[in-house]
Structure formats: C-alpha cells, structure tokens
Amino acid sequence: MTVPPQPSPPLPLRLPLETARLLLRAHRMSDLDDLVRFHGDPEVVRFVPWPVRDRAATEETLRVKLTQTELVAHGQWLVLAVEVRDTGRVIGEVLLKWASDRQGELGFALARDGQGQGYAAEAATAMLRLGFDGLGFHRITAVCIAENDASARLLGRLGFRQEARLVDNVHFKGAWATQLVFAMLEDEWRSSGRR
C-alpha cells in the first residue's frame, strides 16, 4: 500500500520585513492610490505579466493581494508592499513563491519614480534573506523577459547566475517572448556576503 505524500507544513513568516529604507509588509486597502500609480503605468508594466490596469482593476487585484500574506502550500506567492519608511508611500511590490520543496521564485515591480535608487535591490535582498535564512530554501529562481535589461542586470548584481535563455518560450502581451532564467543556491547566498 502506497502512503500518499503528506502536505508540507506552513512556512513561518515574521512580517513586516524591515530594511534600512523600506518596510516590506502585507498590503492594505489604503495602498490603492499608490498601486494605481504604477499598475496603470505602461512603462512599469511593460515587462510584468499583468496588463495596464485602471483603478477598478487595481482594486480588484489588491483584494487578492490582501490574501497573499502567508506560505502554506507549494505554488503560493507571498506578495508584499514595498513602502518607503520615510514617506509611507508604497512604491512597488516584491514577491516570493514557494515553488516546491525548499525552492522559491523571486519577483518584483517598482513604480517608475522608485527605480534607479537601489530600492529594488534592497527589497529583493530582504526577500532572499527570508527565503534562504528564514525559510530554509535551497534554491531561488527568477525569470524575466529577455528585453528587460534592468531586471537582468539587477539579478546579476544580486548574485544570481543566468541558467537558461528560453527562446520564444512564452506568449507575452500578444507576442512570443524569450525568457531568461536565473538562479541562486543557498551556498552561493551564504558565500556572497549579502546576508
């Protein structure tokens, strides 16, 4: 008789995560105005998997994000607001997926006026720390569209290595797109000095 696999236990999370300049926290309905600013910006959403959203669509999406505050099963995303501590403004989102046993996937999106100031690196580093040090992940991946040079450069600076270039791998925003797959192992994280 085969014993069915047991469900994984919930992964323990201590939120919010704090960095020198940012608070990474669960979304609130009061974030709506800030989210509308970048969810509705065509330049920001150019390389992310959602379309340009108006206020109603952003509010609908925000209601889903309000539930994405824990990791209790493989396949779930933890979606956190990226708030600038000095201003209280939400300038983006950072995501960590519990992909499978001891494996995660990182994602991020920032408002245009939050880009180029190191916020994405700061938020992503905090999520890597959560994944590797807090949750015990062995491997964390990140995927971006090949034309997204800024994200590819950021992942390289964070210590990810590119593992694959998947040509015309996904139908993205009406056309076939090439994806770049990046990964980092826990040993690479521990030796990077970013902990």
UniProtKB/TrEMBL annotation:
Keywords: Transferase. The keyword Transferase applies. SUPFAM superfamilies: Acyl-CoA N-acyltransferases (Nat). One of its GO terms (molecular function) is acyltransferase activity, transferring groups other than amino-acyl groups. Residues 22-185 form the N-acetyltransferase domain. PANTHER family: GNAT FAMILY, PUTATIVE (AFU_ORTHOLOGUE AFUA_3G00765)-RELATED-RELATED, N-ACETYLTRANSFERASE DOMAIN-CONTAINING PROTEIN. This is Protein N-acetyltransferase, RimJ/RimL family. The lineage of its organism: Bacteria, Bacillati, Actinomycetota, Actinomycetes, Propionibacteriales.
